[in-house]
Design brief:
Layout (H helix, E strand, L loop, with lengths): L1 H23 L4 E11 L6 H10 L38 H9 L3 E12 L1 E2 L5 E3 L10 E9 L3 E11 L8 E11 L4 E5 L3 E9 L4
Parallel strand pairs: 3-5
Antiparallel strand pairs: 1-2, 1-9, 4-5, 5-6, 6-7, 8-9
């Protein structure tokens, strides 16, 4: 009996140590970079953008049939967090931003990035973008990166577009959750503004 109890204690201790070791494994960190731009031509279409993107050597988004986890008319319940900014020297979308600046149909609104852990899907933390976008850009909102079987980028963005002379400001909303592959450029859009995103495993350097 004493031998059995000793064996049981040893098994339980081993299981506890194993669980503790698993909990101690740090989450993979990712560099997240977003390039947000607006359409200057109301008649511009995603197909036209695709042609410009192809000319720039850019890969666009991979379609995702995963349903959105929220209704487009409802704000996201969010646990917010702050993460260190990504140095501009690590940006991978700078050439595309330059291409957009030269375009007659599009104009960059904000270009920024940050580094964060790949939180589980049920523990995603949203990053408010308000302090990272230029003043007067008309952009507000929040972004979350989470990781399940795949990476998922969730956007909850609002863009107040300036109206033409004598016309009121128009508000456009971009709320999407997109499954992503790391190291690939992804494109998400609404009728008047869009986002090019890339997520890269962080080297920590």
């Amino acid at each position: 009996m004493k031998k059995t109890v000793t064996l049981l204690i040893a098994v339980l201790a081993t299981a506890a140590l194993s669980a503790s070791a698993q909990q101690a494994v740090p989450l993979q960190s990712y560099d997240v970079e977003l390039l947000i731009f607006r359409s200057l031509n109301p008649n511009a279409s995603p197909e036209e953008w695709g042609m410009e993107a192809a000319a720039a050597g850019q890969r666009l988004a991979i379609p995702d049939d995963e349903p959105s986890p929220f209704a487009s008319s409802e704000p996201l319940p969010a646990t917010t967090a702050s993460f260190p900014a990504l140095a501009s020297g690590k940006f991978k979308l700078s050439a595309i931003a330059d291409t957009l600046r030269r375009s007659r149909n599009y104009q960059p609104l904000a270009h920024f990035g940050w580094t964060q852990p790949g939180y589980p899907r049920n523990a995603a933390k949203f990053l408010p973008i308000n302090a990272m976008v230029p003043a007067g850009s008309g952009l507000v909102g929040q972004v979350a990166l989470s990781r399940g079987r795949y990476l998922h980028l969730t956007l909850d963005l609002v863009y107040d577009a300036p109206g033409a002379a004598g016309e009121p400001t128009q508000r456009f909303v971009l709320r999407q959750s997109r499954r992503m592959r790391s190291n690939e450029r992804h494109y998400l859009d609404s009728p008047r503004f869009g986002v090019i995103a890339i997520v890269t495993p962080s080297s920590g350097a």
